[in-house]
Each structure stands twice: as structure tokens, then as C-alpha cells.
Amino acid sequence: MVDAFAYLGDVIAEYQDRVAAEAYLEPMVGRDEQERLGRGRRARFDGYAAITVRDEASAAELAKELDARDDVETAYVEGGPTPPPTPPPVNAGDDPRSGNQGYLDAAPDGIDARWAWGATDGTGIGFVDLEQGWTLNHEDLAAAGITIISGVSQAYHGHGTAVLGEVVAVDNAKGGVGIAPEASARVVSQFRTSSTYSTAAAIISAADAMSPGDVLLLEAQTTAAGSSTTYLPVEVEQAVFDAIRDAVDVGIVVVEAAGNGGNDLDDWADASGRHLLKVGDADYRDSGAIMVGAGASAAPHSRLSFSNHGSRIDCYAWGQNVDTTGDGWTGTSTTAYTGSFGGTSGASPIVTGAAVLLQSWQRARSGHPFSPGTVRTWLSSSLNTPSADPATDRIGVMPDLKAICERIEWNDRFKGIDDRFVYWVYILFGIINDAPGLIWVPGKGPVPVDPDWRDVAVRGRRELVAAIAREARAFDGRLTAKQLDRIAEKAFKTLGR
What we know:
The chain is α/β, with parallel strands linked by helices. It has helices spanning 4-7, 9-19, 31-37, 56-67, 113-116, 157-168, 199-209, 238-249, 343-366, 372-379, 390-393, 401-411, 419-427, 429-432, 458-475, 481-495; strands spanning 24-27, 49-52, 126-131, 147-148, 184-189, 215-218, 253-257, 290-295, 315-318, 322-325, 337-341, 385-386, 397-398, 437-441, 445-449. The protein has three domains: 4-67, no CATH class; 102-412, CATH 3.40.50.200; 416-495, no CATH class. Mean pLDDT is 82; it is low at 89-99 and 429-435. GO terms for molecular function: serine-type endopeptidase activity.
């Protein structure tokens, strides 16, 4: 990996001479921070550098010039400080509140955190909120002992306070309670110093301080140079995408706000015409993050107009009427609360809280958390609550913790046999569950089975199992008669329940 800071020195010097203007070159991750925390996984980011010039026009000109060079992979103008996804104005006449913290309730209203609290409360999982500012001594957060990993708490303090309240508000006699109140919470700021700002550097810093299974929330959005669209997910910036991918690859679950641009992300293209966020497109790239859109607080949860949407969105949650700590924007009061927080900013912490509870539950029962990919699969599966019109809304599903955990436990019933037999037992899964399923008919393959199977005589059921066993034997010559008997024995025991 070439050190971009050293490599671009001559290029910048030539540029300064040519345009008679200052241009300041810095590594993306500051030298002081490297010395303080060590390079760790930052080594792969040595190929990045940040250049500061006098104005936006100069930045665009230099980025275009660098991007045209064969020895530079990509150059672009970073979006810079932008407001976090803003809660839209609340009109009580057409967006009635559904009750304080209704997002904690059972599906289809909420994620059913209240049910999950019977088994877990976030213990054992780290949670990090990435944005620009917080009031960490708020009366319903102070006891959580939240600390800053790196950066400066500088802007939109009430926004960060609201996000933290949704996830980790303390279970006490004040205010509300967070979705995962016993998670270990920290924060990291996009403002690396009082005058420097980098989302990618903040992600790298957070990831270096986190453990596999922890959950990182990206409460941010950005703009893209040359794009006619408004706010976009932060991963449209190459350095941010790489930082997210790096965090996911080491086991960190990343939840990313889709942004409040009201854009169809399938239609958006970068300056090179690539549809980076359109799943299935030749240029699509997957950061591994769980991307979150915003739906109405009242079931059946239609997409809110400001929410970005498209095939890239995995989940949604309430984007309005969220009851939480702080004023939701710029205030610093230690006693303020709001019942009108929202936007993809309000939705993303709800999905984050669901991820934290799922990881905490899994760690408690098995000794280790799920991988980021497994968490995303469960939270975005069809088990969860769809939006009002999935084909039009295109904001994914809202997690249903009760449905997810019960399905995982159901699947675990089959872990008592060797992996090579699991798939054959799963052929019976639909039948065992008294729902439409499949049987394997010799010569025909999988054939649908009606739920009326229970009306079949015991002898008929045994013949069905025997047919599956015969097919298994023909399918895999490694299976012995004794092993086939184990398949049938497992099936019989389950059928007898």
C-alpha cells in the first residue's frame, strides 16, 4: 500500500505553484491519533489523504484533475459537515402520537423490546453512536457512564442525546428506558478536532476500540459532489464505504441511517454514472451495513416522504413521534425530553437497539454473538413487520424480536444431529410445523405437502419417512443404513410430539 501522504507531496507542491494558492495535505487519520492509539487496522488506509484548499471551486477542480490521473484510484470532494438527518416537522393533526415509546411494543406496532427484556437487556454488548455532539450528563443518561472514544462533542448535542436515549436511557425513576439499557455505550465524533471533520476517520477510530459482536450506529448523512440529489447515506463516499466494510469484516455490526433526502437510491448514480446502491446492478457494492429507512409510527407504517428508499434498504422503524431524551436537535439541557424526534435519525437507533438485544441474547445463550451478516439476515427477514406497501415503500421491514428469537430457538431443535443430516430433517420442517411443506418423492423430487398431513395414518407417515430415507441413500452414497435410521429416528421423535 502506497502512503498517499508521502506520494502526493510533489503533486500538491506543483499545484500550489501553478495556481498561486495554498493547499494543505494531511493523512486521513491524523499523526497524533496514530501515535495515541496505534495504527492497528489503519494500515490499509495509508492510501488515503485529505487535501484542504481555499474554496469549493478549487476543491472541485483539484479533485477532477487528480481523478484523471492513472496513478490515483479516486478523488472526490468530501461532503463536509452537514446536519444529521433532521426530524421532520410534526403535524399533530395528521401524525397522531401512538403513545410514549410505542416503538418498544409488540409487533406490528413496534419491535417488541418489552418481550425481549424477559431474556436480555443488552448486557455484554458494546454500543457506539457516531455523530457530532451529545449531552452525556443528561439526567436519564448520566448513570450509563457513556464516554467519548475520540473526537470533539461540538454540534447538534440534542440530536445525539435523543439517539442515546432511544438505545440506552437508564432504567430508573426518571424519563423513559432505552431499548437495551444495560449495553456498554460510548460515542465517537465526526469532528476529529474543533476544526477538522471526517466520518471515515471516526469509523476507523471506533472500530479499533470495539470488539466483535458490538454495534456501531452511523447517525449521519452526506451530499455528493456533482449529484443533483439531496442527502445520501454516508457510504457513498469511498473512504467511508471502506471504513464500514473494514469494521464489518472484523465482526462489528454497523447500522447506517439511509438519510432524509427522499431519494430512490436505485436511481442515484455517482459522478461516474455508477449505481452503487442498486442491488443487482453491475456496479453495486455491499458495505455490510444494515441500512435503515423511516416509516410512520402508526401501523401499518407507510414510508415517510423524506426517507431515502430502494433495494439497498434493509430495515425501517418509526421516523416520527419518537419519545426520548434531549430536544432532538441542538439543545444541551440535562432535563429535556421530546415526544417528536424522528427522521431516519429516529428510526436507526430503534433498529440498533434491536441488534444490540439480539446480540446480547445470543451471547448469553451460546457464549458468542452472531456475525454481522447473520444479524442483518435476521433483522431484515420476512419474519419481521412489513411496511404498508412494500413494493412502493421499499424501506425493508421493522424487526420483530419475539418472532426472530422464537424462530432461532425453533431451528435449534435440529442441532442434536450431525450437520450432514440437518438438511434431510429440514425437508420435514414444514410438515412438523403443521404448515405447508415439502416431501421428497423418489423420481419426482420435492413435492408440496398439504397441512392436512396429520389426517394420514401412522403407517402412511412411516412410509413417507422411509421414502425420504431411501432418497437420501440414493442421493449420498456415504450414508449407511445405520445413519439413515438416525434420520428416521429423529423424524419419528419429532412427529410424536
